[in-house]
User: What shape does this take?
Amino acid sequence: MSNNKILDEITPMEQDFAQWYTDVIKKAELIDYSSVKGCVILRPYGYAIWENIQKVLDDMLKDTGHSNVYMPMFIPETLLNKEKEHVEGFAPEVAWVTHGGSEELTERMCVRPTSETLFCEHYANIIKSYRDLPKLYNQWCSVVRWEKTTRPFLRTREFLWQEGHTVHATEEDARKETLDILDIYAELCENYLLIPVIKGQKTEKEKFAGAIDTYTVESMMHDGKALQAGTTHFFGDGFARAFDIKYLDKDNELKYCWQTSWGVTTRLIGAIIMVHGDNRGLLLPPAIAPVQVRIMPIASHKPGVIEKAEEIKSKLAQNFRCDIDLSDNSAGFKFAEQEMRGIPLRLEIGPRDIEQGQCVLVRRDNGEKITASLEHLDGTVEYLLDEISGNLFNKAVENRTNRTFEAVNLEEIIETAQTKSGFIKAAWCGDAECELGLKETADITSRCIVSHEYDGKCVYCGEPANMLVYWGKAY
Assistant: This one.
């Protein structure tokens, strides 16, 4: 019991998936709850995961010509109101500041729920000529949305994210940017977070307020529910007209700009937990794990063991993120803690291993133990981390495949939604009433449109339909 106390306190996911999720994030010390309802404290381990995700994506954005900027966190009400559809979409979630110190403000300000209006005001001031375009800006910040129901990482009142806001001379360039960023998000999810995603377009009902088109990368959690992992938005010239963002073209004509915005948030950490985690805790993708290898000295009281462990760490640290557990806890407790925190590899080294010039490597994903030569340790660690990455991705793909169904009529989609969890592929005619009808009768929502050239019949009304849609229940 003492060695496995950490695991004893985790509710099995098969018993209660929501409680399992809460247990894991608390026991793995990712967050703590704060006195501010709906807001959490990101503890060092949780924040380190976000920093690694941030670094990967930041490099990808900079490699494609984007620059980081920072906007104020407050938005005057008159500025927010400039784009009617946009403000109406966010109005229920806005937090307002009405006083500065003891004085009432002459105009109340909102704490940014997103920064479109601030970027638009700035762009209207700095863009004059076609030579000023494109503007490819991104910012890393926090935003506030006054959610009624919250859950750590998935939906909190304040959360961290990146929000990109770009301006282009032509519709073609803006549309290309929207889809290029969607591809970057898919690459981030699949190659680094090891989460397979479905790329597609949101319906009119589900699109971002103020956008013409919204695109999404949708992921499936272990329990079959969907999670929107990231979105990109094509704004057209609507914001440009509202904020008078014009440029003088080569033909000496004033023209309105075309814009995009896009973002991912710390909900990606929630996705990692719910896609890869198991009843022993976290299972982190090697690319973003704060610690990739934890070194465990065995019989550390014996001469030379700790020294050898530190020597191994010094060597591995040149290529991998690693640490040493020098606590006085029992070996069983140390192993359980390492597994709970999702560290991909455990390296055990004891007196007998030192004599034989070897160590034992234990994979977090499948528990396999490998005896490895210390002489070629770097290559072995690299190989195993790659193997773990491939295994995690393949298991996630397998779960999605096993939980993806098809339906051709209303009876089928209702039965599938009631008896199974996962994605349901079904045709849709594009009528909003049919979309709403599916939510009311089957308790599912559209996740994304994956084809506009499908030859079928609407799963709800039976009329001809050219759109193939993924439906499901979502976080």
User: Anything to note?
Assistant: Residues 5-276 form a domain with the BirA Bifunctional Protein; domain 2 fold (CATH 3.30.930.10). The chain has three domains: 5-276, 293-400, 404-472.
